[in-house]
What we know:
mainly alpha; 3 strands
Amino acid sequence: MLKWLDRLTGRGPAAGGSSLAALGDYPPYHAPHIGPPTSWSLDQAQENLAHLVANRASRLVILGDWLRRHAGIDAGPALAGGDPRPLLDALHRWSNACWPAWHQPAIASEAIWLRSSRDGDERVYSLLLDVALLLGELVLQRNAKYQWALDLDPINERDGMASWRRAVLLLPAYGDMPGPIDLDLEHQVVGRYLRPDHVMNQIHNGWAETVMDAIEGRQEAAWVRPTA
């Protein structure tokens, strides 16, 4: 087992984690280049991706420790190979219970997120990135076809997609797939924060659906012919 997973196997006391003050000690994530992504050169986008991949393990430890102390959630069993669904359900319940109290209209917009330093008053975006990394890790450990990569699809650039030149969980095309599949997990997590009281966010666990579809190969199932 990877050594960094060892710190995620303990269980701490349950805590509310509902107060915005709970984010006060959350270590910020500092990317080499602050957005918006449309301002980055390709080299700068690649440096951001390399930094994210190099720091992925340490950020998961940070999030795992914080979740145990402030939310009573233990990510260790799922990251050690156990069933990921109990963790996905716990994250869903936690976001429903706590994120509405974190919502700050002054910073809660997609434009601010895309150019955020993820520090100071915008520290919540560091935690949201780490939640996305956790969701991605659940996939990566169970479906090795996926990888963290840049969204360089010119169609997404043309359409002004938030994923353009950002790190996404990408499934390279294979079989009869017409192109790669990219999952913008950070955008999905941030969207939940931006609309914490939206009824569909409350009743539907979109994170679990995305993660389990990726793990079980449903994202590409329509394109890949079964082997004989």
